[in-house]
Design brief:
Layout lengths: L2 E10 L2 E10 L10 E7 L6 E4 L1 H9 L3 E2 L1 H13 L1
Parallel strand pairs: 1-5
Antiparallel strand pairs: 1-2, 2-3, 3-4
């Protein structure tokens, strides 16, 4: 089972709000996921990102691969500390 850390889109039409989730790569984008590890709201100024870096590190240690977008968000969160 290939596990990814990716964004799941929620919110209203033209008002996206994303959950950062750990999911099987075969699952639908907004479908079943294993665990929610954060949120991302691109519409606020500044963009609001919350995530549990300890859970993310645990999943990465177990072999989960973050998508490019989530990897950028993780790096930005680590730099902002």
């Amino acid at each position: 089972m290939a596990v990814k850390i990716r964004l799941a889109r929620h919110g209203a039409h033209k008002a996206p709000y994303y959950r950062i989730v750990v999911a099987d790569s075969r699952a639908r984008r907004d479908g079943r996921y294993i665990e929610q590890v954060g949120t991302y709201n691109p519409l606020t100024e500044p963009k609001k990102v919350t995530m549990d870096l300890e859970k993310i590190d645990t999943w990465i240690a177990q072999g989960a691969k973050p998508t490019e977008t989530v990897a950028r968000l993780i790096d930005a969160q680590r730099q902002n500390g």
